[in-house]
Amino acid sequence: MFERLPLTALRAFEAAARLRSFKRAAAELHVTPTAISHQVRLLEHELGVRLFVRLPRRVEPTAQGRQLQERLSSAFLDVADTLAALRATPDTGALTVTTTHSFAALWLVPRLRRFRAAHPDVQVRVEGRPEVVDLHVERGIDVAIRYGTGAAPGLHEAWTLAETFGVYGAPSVVATAARRAPARISVTWQDSTLYEDGWRQWCERAGVDWLHRKAALLEYKEEHYALQAAIAGEGLVLASSVMVAGSVCAGLLRPFRGDVCVDGSRYRALCLPGRERHPSVKAFLDWLQTEPTRDETAEVRGTRETVFASPTANI
């Protein structure tokens, strides 16, 4: 049954569908764009269906094309994993994870020692990037941890971590915040009102008029900068329960009005379909599932306040 498989055409199609470009597929496979186009036409003729919609600067797979591309990508990954396992020089177990600078610095990197202790043979490389990485194009990246609830077409979602937002400060600042309005520390994301809206909602729920007072507003472009400013005593910061957990556990920050919080979004671990079965990727995703379930608590004046909640899984 395999003798009739048009392997050259399937490989050309998979690359073009994944990269959304005949030119980029040609560069990856070291052939010409004309050769890619020819192989795709042969495959369309063989199947009797249209696999691409040709647009001015790219190609988009049709519904049938997307279905075929997902199955092919998964199958090719399985073959690649099998070949790696059979090599005389075994795979080093390297794993590349991309996420935001703040999530890497405040959540992931401080916890990786536990993953490395459990999996000393897996070499983890963390890439902090502000932009969303296209995993279909950058095949060297195994896992992307992204923020938000938007759709992730063509990707496998292996883990989610929910958050809420609250207000935190250095112990000395929190102790006096009820008597005088402190400086507010916030984060400015490009084209995002997340923190602006969060501060407004928090102040409304807390019943304070800080937004209308002349207290200073300090703004930073990254969450870890904002948290460091709060730790230094510059004011109170609106922060994600995910990002602030380590600082609260270390006693560097305390919640102010811990009974007041506003909804946040979630972090998700994503990978190409089929890659979740690769040994090093599976080990990492399995670890993510168990790591956050260890509730982190901090002693705050004789009471234990939970500052990090267990995530919900969506596999």
UniProtKB/TrEMBL annotation:
Instruction: Quote the Pfam families the UniProt record gives.
Output: HTH_1, LysR_substrate
- Keyword set for this entry? DNA-binding, Transcription, Transcription regulation
Q: Which InterPro entries match?
A: LysR-type_TF_proteobact-type, LysR_HTH_N, LysR_subst-bd, WH-like_DNA-bd_sf, WH_DNA-bd_sf
Keyword DNA damage in the entry? The reply is no
Q: HTH lysR-type domain: which residues?
A: 5-62
Q: Does the keyword Transcription feature in the UniProt annotation? A: yes
Membership in a protein family:
Belongs to the LysR transcriptional regulatory family.
Under which name does UniProt file this protein?
LysR substrate-binding domain-containing protein
Q: Which organism is it from?
A: Dokdonella ginsengisoli
